[in-house]
Design a protein that fits this description.
Largest sheet: 7 strands, mixed
Number of domains: 1
Strand content: 15-25%
Number of helices: 8
CATH architecture: 3-Layer(aba) Sandwich
Helix content: 25-40%
Order of helices and strands: EEHHHEEHEEHEHHHEE
CATH class: Alpha Beta
Number of strands: 9
Low-confidence stretches: 1-22, 173-178, 180-191
Mean pLDDT: 79
Distance between the termini: 33 Å
Radius of gyration: 17 Å
Strand order of the largest sheet: 5-4-3-6-7-9-8
């Protein structure tokens, strides 16, 4: 039997849950410094469909105050409805520079602010937003459970939390590939072997809606009421 426990930081530990290679802040910042200039033309195209569907889900939700966690280069920003007020945060100054350029060039007045901030410990007061969405972020941060807890804190009761992320396969060829790639996590800037249980506790999994996204179900849209 595999024993899965919570450590003192709220992380899931145990076989198949804890990624093989931990990421730290320095590794994340260095990875995204390298990726910033080519992110849109590389990963941006692979993730485009899942990103559009996540933003469409946000646009269909009530409320206007939206927090985009890990806004990156701002690829999603042009797709939000005009009546939404978007605040984006990211730890990477290099990625934020790209996002701010997009906002200025496209005149995206729906974007209220783009801030350098730690997603696991933001500066926002409790209950600041109607919706929080994190796209391709959960497998990047050092402590995914702290990310979820912080999103719960800043979203108003009755609001919505959305994730789009890669979650590791449970079996089959993709599982083997992801495990083989795991030691390269620091260079990649994300965890190929990231399990859904690393983000969601059992009580969350009982209420979260998980929808496979193209291409080939590599990404998943997770919808959770706050």
């Amino acid at each position: 039997m595999n024993h899965i426990l919570d450590d003192t930081h709220g992380r899931r530990t145990g076989p198949g849950v804890t990624p093989l290679a931990a990421l730290d802040t320095a590794s994340i910042l260095e990875a995204y410094r390298r990726w910033a200039g080519i992110y849109d033309s590389s990963f941006g195209s692979v993730s485009a469909v899942a990103r559009r569907r996540a933003v469409r889900a946000v646009n269909q939700l009530p409320g206007i105050d939206v927090l985009e966690v890990g806004v990156g280069t701002g690829l999603a920003l042009p797709s939000y409805d005009q009546d939404k007020r978007i605040t984006g945060i990211d730890l990477s100054v290099d990625m934020l520079q790209q996002a701010r350029r997009k906002v200025a060039e496209k005149g995206l007045h729906r974007v209220e602010a783009l801030l350098e901030m730690d997603a696991e410990a933001t500066d926002f007061p409790d209950n600041s937003f109607d919706t929080a969405v994190a796209m391709f972020v959960a497998s990047v941060v050092p402590h995914p459970r702290l990310l979820l807890a912080e999103m719960r804190r800043v979203v108003r009761p009755g609001g919505t939390i959305l994730f789009v992320n890669h979650f590791a396969a449970r079996r089959g060829p993709r599982w083997w590939v992801e495990r083989a790639m795991a030691p390269a996590s620091r260079a990649l800037g994300w965890h190929p072997d990231f399990a859904v249980e690393a983000l969601f506790a059992p009580e969350d999994l009982a209420s979260v809606t998980l929808t496979a996204m193209p291409p080939l179900g590599i990404f998943t849209l997770a919808h959770l009421a706050n």
